[in-house]
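Good morning N.,

You mentioned wanting to compare the apo and holo forms, so I went ahead and generated the holo version with 2-acetamido-2-deoxy-beta-D-glucopyranose. This is what I fed in:
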Amino acid sequence: MISGFPTIAAAVVILLCITDQCTAQTTNCSALASNGDCSFYDCLSTKFQCTANDYPLAYGRKHCLRYASESSCFSTGGQAWITNVSRCLMQSIVNSALYNDVNTTCDQLETFAFESHPRCYIDNGFCTDILLSDQCQNLVCIGNEIFTDRDFYTKQAIDQITRTAASCSSRISTFLLDARECSLSSPDHAL
Ligand SMILES: *[C@@H]1O[C@H](CO)[C@@H](O)[C@H](O)[C@H]1NC(C)=O
Ligand SMILES: *[C@@H]1O[C@H](CO)[C@@H](O)[C@H](O)[C@H]1NC(C)=O
Ligand SMILES: *[C@@H]1O[C@H](CO)[C@@H](O)[C@H](O)[C@H]1NC(C)=O
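and this is what came out, ligand included:
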């Protein structure tokens, strides 16, 4: 029955749309985010119907898994940083307005996620545990073990880490200045 085909096709499309909306509204990734579980990104990708080339799988999951598998390259402080940053990045997404909006696009998720990187890095001790590790151990791990590809995301991520590191210098100077002011105000060390 030729004439029935468009009707069936339309019904299938409508059914798929309804199912997709359902997926978007009901998929709950928050427990995975609380645990810093890398499969959070699979959940996020499903929730927003992203492709394998979008942020959740192409960047988020990929680097989450890579940090986890290369964790032993890092110092103890670096390993704590990895755990805490992974959770911070996921929870930033879950706590954002985008997460609760069914119309959020995968590109919007990408922009938001990249913007949340520097704060999560810094709040969890990037300027000390990562930047100041002995013999640059942790920076070497990031360069040699994590961002080994030469793709667009990697270039963006390395640029961002460099800029984040640059923003540390003022914090480190502030820290040294505070330390100096402490010793200046102490009678024993008066100049
Ligand atoms: C998602 O799950 C968390 C606990 O895992 C729960 O607290 C929260 O209310 C759930 N959110 C929705 C929208 O169901
Ligand atoms: C999502 O988009 C649809 C269609 O454009 C619209 O009717 C709906 O209000 C939007 N929902 C939200 C939460 O913005
Ligand atoms: C990592 O998170 C744990 C638990 O929230 C906290 O106790 C610890 O101080 C954090 N570590 C760093 C380096 O921020």
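The first helix runs from residue 4 to 26.

Happy to go through it together on a call whenever suits you.

Best,
F.
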